[in-house]
């Protein structure tokens, strides 16, 4: 069988009708999942960095440009999610358009986005939780809050190395147990956390608006220093590349297609709706933040939002921002682990992974064994890996998924032009091509070390594919 044999679209649509997962998600639940995955620590940290070093107050425009880049991929995801409303996201779409080998490639790459991404966020969650507990007068032993390769700064300024990051492991275990119990319960928990963090973001915008200083927005686009990417329009573009990663996560909505009540109508609403809401919040947040404090003061500041809040009389907002960040990170971990288990569910159902990954609990109707295995795998990274390593591995895998999905729309329009498309990506081939070019540009900007890690990761994946998956493929068995 050719490595590039595709899974028939009719088979995928049949699976959508004979699924075993519970359809419990409406449009607002899907939007909540999207916002839960998108708004995390990036909003509270990347905004200050991008403004201070690249764009100044025009970081507002950078958020708009980054959102446009995401929208290209989001429109392509929406078309596939309505045509093929099954779990698996980009893996399933690649299987239907480009064949098994590329499907395996993207499925294996998604581990970098979802599983390794969840580990990255759990380490960040741990640092915020430790900081909040310190504010409340409770200090955990430093040996238990960081890995041996992750230095941590104590309140007295001393830099030490820990033994194991137990808070990060704790949140991964807690979220995994929640995901095992059911998609409805997980969606409700996500909705609560989304309300918390969005409320704090809105309060920051409303409370800070009256205390902005117009002089801080002048000039709105600082003149270029003579170097590409240092202010001016090139700085806006460079900042857009930096904060692009604050939008990562909206594609996780598509992994829940098989649990949506009306995927043909609700999936585009969930994907595009969550992107639109987050873009509005990001733009207003950046505008207020740079209005409260001059952008030059954010340079080298580890807590730029706290600096902006200091320009208002509302000191209590600092604690609220920490709570919102913790809630935001918690919801990101939940959606990432949800997405990974659903991708593995689809891969196992196709025979490319062992059957344990697609076993459904008789009562909860979730792939609970997959969640259990992921809990152990992600916990190891959370406990011992440095955040710099796992964080850099996440972005390049995500962008590769975006490239393949955008290319998949072009292929599917040619190979299955008459297939029903409840949602059609507009301006094809322009939109998919712009999505491909945007994402490839972002990948090239990540540097050779990240490319080396991606190649090494794919080499491990291909060894698994040729030693196990290719011989157990159900598509291969039917063809033979």
Itemize the secondary structure elements and their pairings.
Blueprint: H1 9-17, H2 27-38, H3 41-55, H4 59-83, H5 90-97, H6 100-113, H7 115-135, E1 151-153, E2 159-161, H8 166-181, H9 183-209, H10 232-243, H11 263-292, H12 304-309, H13 316-349, H14 368-384, H15 387-415, H16 430-444, H17 448-472, H18 474-479
Antiparallel strand pairs: 1-2
Helix pairs in contact: 2-9, 2-11, 2-13, 3-10, 3-11, 4-10, 4-11, 4-15, 4-16, 5-6, 5-15, 6-7, 6-13, 6-15, 6-17, 7-8, 7-13, 7-14, 7-15, 8-13, 8-14, 9-11, 9-13, 15-16, 15-17
β-strand amount: under 5%
What's the oligomerization state?
single chain
Summed over residues and divided by their number, the pLDDT gives a mean of 83
Task: Using the alpha-carbon principal axes, give the shape.
Answer: globular
* Text of the CATH class: Mainly Alpha
How many beta-strand runs?
2
Q: CATH homologous superfamily name? A: Amino acid/polyamine transporter I
Report the end-to-end length measured between terminal Cα atoms: 8 Å
Low-confidence residue ranges: none
How do the strands of the widest beta sheet line up side by side? 1-2
Radius of gyration, Cα only, in angstroms? 22 Å
Helix and strand composition category = mainly alpha
Return the string of H and E elements. Answer: HHHHHHHEEHHHHHHHHHHH
As a percent range, the share of helical residues equals: 55-70%
CATH topology: Amino acid/polyamine transporter I
Would you give an account of this structure?
This protein has 480 residues and is mainly alpha-helical. It has a single domain (9-475), classed as Amino acid/polyamine transporter I, CATH 1.20.1740.10. Helix content is 67%, strand content 1%. A two-stranded antiparallel sheet has the order 1-2. Strand 1 and strand 2 form a beta hairpin. The longest helix has 34 residues, at 316-349. The radius of gyration is 22 Å and the shape is globular. It starts with 8 loop residues before the first helix and ends with a helix. The model has no long low-confidence stretch (mean pLDDT 83).
């Amino acid at each position: 069988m050719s490595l590039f044999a595709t899974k028939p679209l009719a088979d995928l649509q049949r699976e959508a009708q004979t699924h075993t997962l519970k359809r419990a998600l409406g449009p607002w639940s899907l939007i909540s999942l999207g916002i839960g995955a998108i708004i995390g620590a990036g909003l509270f940290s990347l905004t200050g960095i991008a403004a201070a070093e690249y764009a100044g107050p025009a970081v507002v425009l950078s958020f708009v440009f980054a959102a446009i880049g995401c929208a290209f991929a989001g429109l392509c995801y929406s078309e596939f999610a309505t045509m093929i409303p099954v779990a698996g996201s980009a893996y399933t779409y690649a299987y239907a358009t480009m064949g098994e080998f590329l499907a395996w490639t993207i499925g294996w790459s998604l581990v970098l986005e979802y599983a390794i991404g969840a580990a990255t966020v759990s380490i960040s969650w741990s640092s915020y939780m430790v900081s909040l507990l310190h504010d409340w007068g409770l200090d955990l032993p430093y040996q238990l809050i960081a890995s041996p390769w992750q230095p941590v700064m104590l309140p007295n300024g001393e830099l030490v190395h820990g033994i194991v990051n137990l808070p990060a492991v704790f949140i991964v275990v807690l979220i995994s147990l929640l995901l095992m119990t059911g998609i409805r319960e997980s969606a409700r928990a996500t909705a609560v956390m989304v309300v918390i963090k969005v409320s704090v973001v809105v309060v920051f915008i409303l409370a800070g608006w009256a205390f902005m200083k117009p002089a801080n927005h002048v000039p709105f686009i600082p003149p270029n220093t003579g170097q590409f990417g240092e202010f001016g329009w090139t700085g806006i573009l460079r900042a857009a590349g930096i904060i692009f990663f604050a939008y990562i996560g909206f594609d996780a909505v598509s992994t829940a297609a098989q649990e949506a009540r009306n995927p043909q109508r609700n999936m585009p609403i969930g994907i595009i709706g969550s992107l639109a809401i987050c873009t509005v919040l990001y733009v207003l947040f950046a505008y207020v933040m740079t209005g409260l404090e001059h952008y030059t003061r954010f340079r080298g500041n580890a807590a730029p939002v706290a600096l902006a809040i200091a320009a208002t009389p509302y000191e209590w907002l600092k604690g609220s921002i920490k709570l919102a960040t913790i809630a935001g990170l918690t919801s990101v971990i939940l959606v990432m682990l949800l997405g990974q288990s659903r991708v593995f569910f689809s891969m196992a159902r196709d025979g490319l992974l062992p059957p344990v990954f697609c076993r459904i609990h008789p009562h909860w109707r979730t792939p609970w064994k997959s969640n259990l295995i992921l809990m152990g795998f992600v916990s190891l990274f959370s406990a011992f890996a440095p955040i710099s390593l796992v964080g850099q591995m996440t972005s390049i895998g995500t962008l590769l998924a975006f490239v393949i999905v955008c290319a998949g729309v072009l292929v599917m329009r040619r190979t299955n032009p008459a297939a029903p498309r409840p949602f059609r990506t507009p301006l094809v081939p322009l939109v998919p091509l712009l999505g491909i070019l945007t994402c490839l540009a972002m990948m090239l900007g990540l540097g050779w070390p990240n490319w080396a890690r991606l190649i090494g990761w794919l080499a491990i994946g291909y060894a698994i594919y040729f030693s196990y998956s290719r011989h157990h493929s159900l598509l291969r068995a039917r063809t033979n």
